[in-house]
Amino acid sequence: MSKLDNELINMKNIAISGHINPDGDCVGACLGLYNYILKNFEGVNVDVYLEPIPAIFDFLKGSSDIKNQYNENNTYDLYIALDCSDIKRLGIFGDYYKKAKHTLCIDHHITNDESFADVCYIQPHRSSACELLYTLMDSEKINKDIAECIYTGMVTDSGVFQYGSTTSETMNIAGKMMDMGIDFPTIVNRVFFQKTFTQNKMLARAINNAKVAADGKILYSIVTKKEMDECNAKPKDLEGCVSHLRSTKGVVASVLMYQNPEGTFKVSLRSEKETDVASIAAKFGGGGHKNAAGCTILENPEEKMKEIVSMIEKELN
Ligand code: 5GP
Ligand code: MN
After folding, report:
1. Does one domain contain both 185 and 243?
2. What is the model's pLDDT at position 311?
3. What is the pLDDT of residue 70?
4. Where are the alpha helices (DSSP H) in the chain?
5. Nearest CA to ligand 1 atom 10
């Protein structure tokens, strides 16, 4: 029996959640698991709880079943957290997670706090939570819908198989998903290349506002609330912009800061190779991966940016 089936067996009422501000890996893993349980475990009730997901993932099977509000009347035998490094990252579902009879965490963040679930499968070397999830599944029990979810998560977190976290096993698993007949060019196009005009305008702001440090090895940028309001942009419209800063020739690390509606500031960090930004994000209460991490700060964005840039400079030396 597969490791995942072993955890699911005898469970009759299961809840699934991923991290706040869900991305393709989080949505893909939650829906991949949801479809796997529905297909293979008859008579089991399964609910997926997530914050509203970006519309680009609406094509994934089960996306319309996702609940944004917890069903207070339900007590779950098992609550599974996916692509989520700590209880805080479950947002409003964190308190309910703790109330389930059993908890399971499947994650690939290096900063994972293993103490928040009864059973943990944490493998930071995995390029995505979806890749890890697949290795725990029974491969004979996967269909095309599940393969689409897994592939979506894999391409999201590996930057379409370009980041250093990509391994030959990543490619082998992606190949198996392709063999299931998924429309992978459309998935890649939807997830990576279709940008709204607002997203492109925000990218322009992020690049325009960028400043250089460490002789061009660091690019950092703050996009103000006023600039976002001018374009009617939401924080989601700035996702991915930090990677564009990082992809500038000679740049080893990039930082992007922008304001959340409630006034806090989202910080995204990207780096390459041995430059570890996860440890820097962790110092500000955040986390992530060595080359892609984030945190939230409450105030003083300029001052905090200086601190973060100087920490990266030390990391470079
Ligand atoms: P992004 O910059 O795209 O929001 O996030 C990059 C990576 O860092 C993702 O793997 C994400 O899960 C993680 N991350 C982003 N923000 C936070 C945070 O506030 N706390 C933790 N623990 N991880 C974060
Ligand atoms: Mn992930």
Report:
1. no
2. 98
3. 96
4. 3-8, 24-40, 94-99, 129-136, 144-158, 168-179, 184-188, 197-208, 225-230, 241-246, 278-283, 301-316
5. 288
What ipTM was assigned to the predicted interfaces of this complex?
0.98
Q: What pLDDT is attached to residue 308?
A: 98
The residue whose CA has the least distance to atom 22 of ligand 1 is 287
- Residue 85 CA: which ligand 1 atom is closest? 22
CATH of the domain at 103: 3.90.1640.10
Q: Which pair of structure tokens corresponds to residue 55?
A: 């519309």
The residues of the chain scoring below 70 in pLDDT are none
**Tens of pLDDT along 145-174?**
999 999 999 999 999 999 999 999 999 999
Residues with CB under 6 A from ligand 1: 19, 85-86, 89, 111, 268, 286-289, 292-296
Same structural domain for residues 183 and 230? no
Statement to judge: residues 130 and 149 lie in one domain: yes
Residues sharing a CB contact under 8 Å with residue 44, sequence separation 6 or more, in sequence order = 8, 11, 12, 13, 14, 37, 38
How many A from CA of 160 to the centre of ligand 2? 13
pLDDT of residue 309: 98
pTM: 0.95
Are the C-beta atoms of residues 76 and 87 closer than 8 Å to each other?
no
DSSP 267: E
97, 235: one domain:
no
Do residue 173 and residue 229 come from a single domain?
no
Ligand 2 centroid distance, CA of 278 (Å): 13
The protein residue whose alpha carbon is closest to atom 14 in ligand 1 is 294
CATH of the domain at 256: 3.10.310.30
Q: Quickly tell me which residue has 């209460």 as its tokens.
A: 285
- What is the spatial distance between Cα 105 and Cα 83, in angstroms, rounded to a whole number? 8
Q: State the pLDDT at residue 204.
A: 98
User: Domain end: 176, 193, 210, which one?
Assistant: 193
Query: Which mutation among 268, 269, 276, 279 tests ligand 1's pocket best, with the greatest number of atoms within 8 A of CB?
Result: 268
Q: Which domain holds residue 14?
A: 3-193
Q: Are residues 189 and 266 in the same domain?
A: no
Domain termination site, one of 142, 169, 193: 193
Tally of structural domains, the chain = 2
